[in-house]
Amino acid sequence: MPPTFVRPPALRPGDTVAALSLSSGFVAEVPHRYEAGRRQARAELGWHILPAPNALRGSEYLYRNPQARADDLHWALENPEIHGLLSTLGGDDSVRLLPHLDLNLIRTHPKCMVGFSDTTVTLLQFLRAGVSACYGPSLLTDIAEHGGMHRFVVQGLRQATMQTAGFALSPAPEWTEQHQEWLDPDLQEVRRTFLPSRGWRWLQGEGAVSGHLIGGCLEVLDMLNGTPGWPEPELWRGAILCLETSEDVPPPAQVGYWLRNFAAQGILGSAAGMVLARPRGYSSEMVEELDGWVRRVLWAAGREHLPVLANVDFGHTSPQLTLPLGGQARLDPEAGVFEVLQGAVS
């Protein structure tokens, strides 16, 4: 039987959402961007952003105190005044939270959690606790976007966190990787340059498939692999794998090696489909090489007909979708469809 997940209550305008620094404490170094994120979340989504007790205590304190980061998550879950949870940023340190996390609190106080990148660790603990979660923008990234939130991001967050029905997914009309210095307050209202999008690409696949969404950032999944926080085999079975890479720009061969590990674990063999994000920092030659690695690994795993959709707008790209992990989705290569059948909230 496929796994089932509790769907937390949908967020509504006027709800209070806790800002959590579960990995990096960099938010304390860019107070102007933090305030922009709070202001834009209020204007576009109606959310009141409230920092968790330790969220703004800075990088040094949070690095030395993973228990404090876990305490913030537990505080937000148990606090009846908090309706949702939002990561301030990613990082590279969430794996150190594992000994301190209480999955029972996640299970008994289900709330909508949103984040990406290193927050992959925490989002997968929600799935392990039997609770859906959302792979979407953090407070300091697309929510605090220079000059205001992108319409595509607003729509994606509303669909995934505030809408109980399923919804169709479609490519963003434009995208950017332009770096805009966060430390300079004068640049906060200077919009970045966006380029026209070429859309999504089907690498392979025959026939429509459906399954629950699971996945995250591959570099973070590599850190999590083999720890007590790694999702149990039944959580991968029948899933649509949603995989992305970070600004570290791992070589295509490294992505292939990670996928070989997934094949060896049986994850690829039992998957219903795969969705790959637009890889940040890749040249056209690297994209072509990556495509070859994905097809080669899947062929070796006996999955040469597995539906694979690539270049999708989630993860380390802007603007980004919000994907309901644990939610049911459908891929149809022939019809060119990627849709959510049942989302992450109720």
From TrEMBL:
Domain LD-carboxypeptidase N-terminal: 17-136
Keywords per UniProt: Hydrolase
InterPro entries in alphabetical order: Carboxypeptidase_A_C_sf, Class_I_gatase-like, LdcA_N, Peptidase_S66_N, Peptidase_S66C, S66_fam
Species of origin: Deinococcus sonorensis
UniProt domain LD-carboxypeptidase C-terminal: residue ranges: 210-331
UniProt keyword Transmembrane helix, yes or no: no
Family listed: Belongs to the peptidase S66 family.
One Pfam family per UniProt: Peptidase_S66
Record's protein name: S66 peptidase family protein
